[in-house]
Amino acid sequence: MTVDDSGSGEDAQGADSGEDPLALRLEGLILGAERRYTPFQAARSAGVSMELASRFWRAMGFADIGQAKALTEADVLALRRLAGLVEAGLLSEAMAVQVARSTGQTTARLAEWQIDSFLEGLTEPPEPGMTRTEVTYPIVELLLPELEEFLVYVWRRQLAASAGRVVQAADDEEMVDRRLAVGFADLVGFTRLTRRMEEEELGELVEAFETTAADLVAANGGRLIKTLGDEVLYAADDAGTAAEIALRLIETMAHDETMPELRVGMAFGTVTTRMGDVFGTTVNLASRLTSIAPKDAVLVDTAFAEELIRTQDAPTSEAEAAEEAAAAEKEGEEPPTYRFALQPMWQRPVRGLGVVEPWLLTRRNGG
Fold it and tell me: How confident is the model at residue 12 (pLDDT cuts 50, 70, 90)?
């Protein structure tokens, strides 16, 4: 249905329902379809039970709407597609609900960010007397096709990268429970900052931190799992990559006078992956190490340290490294080179995980 300024169609429907006419016009523009169905009618048209339709909608993050006529042909088509995957045996019903949930959660955050960032910045009235609402519709109309194409492109790129990691897994079990290096990076004193800074300043600081961290993680071969305002969680396939990311985070933030100090905790071991997130003892240990790490420093667990030693990214000790260098010099050979140095710290109890021995990770010889 074409949306115009005549006050008919969605505008008339909005007047009847008490909803904002512009909101309905934007909905029609973005969805590309008019409201036609109640939830029951949509489920029946899609050929699925109302119970399953409700599970899908809730999984996607949409509120129950009773029997209001608020759904479109696109909603019916989405239900048919999900149900068709189940009927064809390509997905179980539980997996289809997971697909709906993971997609809904990911795109909900993306949509909120785009509205907050794009519309707030782009819909300032260009002429006196114009309202922001009068500018919003044409801006969305221009942005929508370009953002949609870009979203599909990035999704395909990410899907290709993820699929590549899966097919390289040693076995089916490793696809779910994998050995990864996991790191948490945490801004020190963030709670105190929230009491001192204006909301806008705080938002800018968090955005700068998240942006810098995301760029460094990606550029150095890691994967950003999630951001939590003052904290980021990332993972890497090997300890050396994770260590490089951690130290670059510390170094980059230390050179930014607007940023608080940073601390990083990392662990290496088996990690369970679900819906893009990571879980398990390894993740919990990395989080605990972050909480006890000194300012502008990186702590790792014993398994992480052992992995760096195994891959010859770090020496067992500085004494052994010195012996190796002396032996190499005696033979007229180049001594081994190591990127990182490890210093054992005092053993200490960590809540829920028993006694652990943290290791302080640094660059070796200022490397």
Answer: very low
